[in-house]
Design a protein that fits this description.
It holds the Pfam family LPG_synthase_C. The protein has 518 residues and is α+β, with helices and mostly antiparallel strands. The protein is built from 17 helices and 26 strands.
Length: 518
Amino acid sequence: MLDFRPVTVADKPLFEKYSYLYGGRNCDMAFANVFCWASFYRNEICESDGFLLMRIKIDGRRKTGYFEPLGEGDIEHAVRLLADDAAAAGEPLRLQSLSQGFAERLSGMHLDKELFVFENRDFFDYIYPAESLRTLSGKKLQPKRNHINQFMREYEYRYEALTPAHGEEVFSLLHKWREGKNSDNRSLEVEENVIRTGMENFDALGLRGGALYVNGRMIAFTYGSPINEETFCIHIEKADTEFESAFPMINRLFVNSLPEKYRHINREEDLGLKGLRGSKLSYHPEELYKKFYAIERDSTEMTIWRFLENGFNADASNIASYISAFYEKENVFILNEGEIPAAAIFIHRLKYEYGSIPYICAVTVMPQFKKRGLGIGMVKRALLKMFDAGEAVVMSRINCNRLKNLASSLGFACAGEVSETGVISVAYPFIWWEGNEENETVFRVVNAKEYLQRYVGYFPDTETEIVLHDDIIDGNCGSYVISGGRVSFTPGSGDGGITPYGLFRLLPLAGKDFIFED
């Protein structure tokens, strides 16, 4: 049995004894990253048979993952130990952030359960020659030199080494940087906690950093730590975007302050963000350090992978990011035909102006089971479960040009039909339908009484009577009276009444800005 324990700052010498020799240039193998993210990922380590092993909670949630074992010896035995640890917790083996060399060795191992190994472009590290970032020489980097020259012409600036004493200024700048970004975004809060941990343990972690000032005010800061004797990793870089070219300026000044023994600079991954990817590529990396992942083929997660691969025009990175970071058992419901997975419905939750609602992200059917009504049947069953749970309204996205009749037959109304709705904005943490820009947001009243009570809570002066007929949810059928801020309901057939589609159009709680709940 493996004796995992939480990572502490005192583990730095132990961790680096292994990571400097066996961790390659992987930013995830920088101890400063391991420690500063430990409260989120709940990082744990242990030594066993000449290897350092690390266990995490993937994206800070319930699913357990393991990093590549670092050390010398029987690597297959080390992987078996991890598989046994996962099995003891009732989970499949999930391996994270693997080097290409280890991934190739993994494919040749004779394990009890076969693994599916894949790369994820969103998490490739960007490695640059330090000299290139110091000098920005050459035609390709001329635009960067132009930005820096412009900055030097326009501003009186000074640069100094970052220390723990800069903490107050760091967080003042960080809060300014966050202005205009979604304050409810969990990732921003997590990152702030990571930076706080780094600043509070700056010296113990061996961090080095820089601060850029204009007119006596900090406008940019950065810091990082060594991954090995030749590679330095930049963990954090923030700047006030009101100062044009502050990012390239702080980057160049900081790299020039590093000891010359660091011949390579790792600027970490782009997380699949297009703007960040473009920025990192514009510095022309010498290497994209590939990272691989592995999960058991005989696992629910691989079933989910096959559903998304068959149902959507999505690449492996999108599917992998969803499975590792967002998928939980309660979000996906699978219908089997015999013992074969035939259809699946994906449901997450959104927050918006009018509260929290379920969101049907996807309904997908395996090719051999299409044209049997399985997808529609799953939507209907999901609606009935939502009704019993007291859900007021559900949201989804479809191509209203092609599927409007199907949507309305299920009681959904396209948001574009409701003039009060305006432009719908959803902060999607994952995209499967890339290229399907024609998809529109649709809403469906689920539990009509709960919906009307919620509506009255926002519009208390509403006075009306409604007869509702719902072909799918019998419990909605009947008469509703809204008066004095209250909703009364008399069950009945609802014959001749409006449908849920009509109810939503009559009294819409559509909203404009939606955020995924974590």
